[in-house]
Amino acid sequence: MPNGTKAPDSPNILIILNDDMGFSDIGCYGGEIETPNLDRLAANGLRYSQFYNTARCSPSRASLLTGLHPHQTGIGILTYSNGPEGYAGNLNRRCVTVAEVLRQKKYKTYLSGKWHIASSLTDPTDAWPLQRGFDHFFGTIIGAGSFYNPNTLTRGNESIEHEAETDPAFFYTDAISDQAVAFIRHHNQASPDAPFFQYVAYTAPHWPLHAHDEDIAKYKGRFDAGWDSLREQRLQRLVRDGIIHPDWQLTDRDPTQPPWTDAENREWTLRCMEVYAAQIDRMDQGIGRIVAALEQTGQLENTLIIFLSDNGACAEDIPQGVTARELVDQLMIAKAKTRTGKPVRFGNDPGLMPGGEDTYQSYGTAWANLSNTPFRLYKHWVHEGGIATPFIVHWPRGIRDRGGLRHNPGQLPDIMATILDVTGATYPKVFNGNAIPPCEGESLVPSFASAYGGRGPLFWEHEGNAAVRIGKWKLVRKYPGPWELYDMETDRTEMRDLAAQHPERVRDMSEQYSLWASRCGVIPREKILELMKAEGAAAFWEEEEQS
Ligand SMILES: [Ca+2]
After folding, report:
1. Where are the alpha helices (DSSP H) in 364-453?
2. Global pTM?
3. Of 259, 374, 420, 494, which one has the fewest beta carbons inside 10 Å?
């Protein structure tokens, strides 16, 4: 089918991405959190047990949208505007987004939610959504912020921060859901003969811990058993449901965290996890409304829905005493006052219960450790806890298996490859005069019909943390530490490092990693740190990462 011709049954594409959520938080991946709408998509579609993001907000988004590795797109770390090539913090012109590709195929394209792949936060540039293939955009340019009054709230190319500031009922998760529903209804009215691509990018459950009281109340008592016992319970459900192999051991509790029996500030600690759960619950309620809108407009049957998280659970602590200047002026991820003029109190203060607009907290390492059960490590690292995501695919017309599981590994660029496969769209060699590197993904379509084993090597690099997976072997490094080697068939939880037993395999895989890193523009971590220090900007979280 030539580009530009609408196939009679081109599927709509709906990607739902969320932010900083662990592998086992939602119901259909062993969690305690109530996600009936995601569970329903899983029950009528497929769940993948070994799909991977790339450990951090911006790089994951860049990779998902372009089918390339993050460094190839200019998003080597985040959107700091002080990096060299590959790290400029701005989606470059040597890549194309799914929206740009599908627009060539007469798709209408919509984005509701977080962007976070442009260095300019306030002035529209050619790295903003409308300039990268989206017909319509509602959401935030920045990576994080208040759910009640977000910075950089934008419609099209215009700031609409005043809409949140003047609406006491505004809550970002609900606004993203409402807009996604409105886009579906608008599309059905305005363009009934064209397919659509919609990208819904929730910021839940990224910090700050903001949620509605009624949702928080639902989770009162739900986590009282504490992280140790809940990790065991999650593992049992993951094994029971066939997502995790019974031979894989549960990782030890994070060694920096106390056993639950010694946990301090119990009431506050539990409240943190209750609010986190409420953030995800609220997102799931919104997904229910989005799916209902598809059903009501007769579009559910032929919409390919993909749900995933952009990185593993987040262990970033927002320190007590962090100043508003750092968060408000320097990083622009917060506002100093609530909409009624009360000061926002920043930091994880056990004397202050999270949830409201005047708080700005995170749930901390021990709960992130629970969120990533049975794996270890977190967002930033490329051990399984940083990169393993739930991955749900729902497409009644294209997938017969209802409630099936797939264990083939996959990675973010596979989403572009899959979309090309199901829509017949053409990935360009040249776009707007710029040469575009070949898509790095492999289509997931063969795995839609049946279990499927094939996947070429997978590679990761983030802040010096690095990994390569070839077949059952994974070579992984926690910067600046040495390479570790794991057999993912017998030990996916990365408990038994086999590097010393297989020096030749380590050498061979590290060479393949180096070839990939140099081909994709990865710059050694030491050099990046030097450049960032010289610039002095955005140092706050960089210092956090080093601690
Ligand atoms: Ca994230």
Report:
1. 365-371, 384-387, 413-423, 445-449
2. 0.96
3. 259
